[in-house]
Amino acid sequence: MAQRYVRIQTTSGQLFYGLLLLDRQVQVLDAPPWLAGQPTEQTIAPDSYHLLAPCAPSKIIAIGKNYLKHAIEMGGEMPKEPLLFMKPSTTVIAPDAQIHYPPQSQRVDYEGELALVIGDRCVDCTPKQAQSKIWGYTIANDVTARDLQKSDGQWTRAKGFDTFCPLGPWIVRELNPGAKLQTF
Hints:
- By secondary structure, this protein is mainly beta.
- The protein has two domains: 4-51, SH3 type barrels, CATH 2.30.30; 60-166, Fumarylacetoacetate hydrolase, domain 2.
- It has helices at 68-73, 127-132, 146-152, 156-159, and strands spanning 4-10, 15-20, 26-29, 39-44, 49-51, 60-64, 83-87, 92-93, 108-109, 112-118, 134-141, 144-145, 165-166.
- The chain starts with a strand and ends in an 18-residue tail after the last strand.
- The relative contact order is 0.19.
């Protein structure tokens, strides 16, 4: 089984990165894993921590209308170039945390997404260099106030409410290129 990297908060409030073991204990790392954190002797029992989002990104960059069925569903065509948008870091929450619905929206949708965790700065890279910056993979829920997205014509408000990006529960380093992934 692939190693599962997690970020936890203990019942006493301490934050740790670690490896989730099969018995649900967490083996603590001495630093975040993408900063070459190494396993320590310390383990934390399953009833002594709460899973957080597996990382605390400084920014979230996403691609909209990235497959035909979704583009048609949204009433448009596939963009010729990637349609990028950002979600603020305040949208990130643990995968089991409560999503707060904004009172000004009548339709809030979920969108299961594969999230790439970038482990190093990435500026003006070739595709090969960019590929080498991917540290791992996790799951994201791109929550969207669909009615606001449609009325605003841009996506910042509709996708940027606090709690609109449940993330995790863990990061894995590799994915089989032939895997047929589904999110639930």
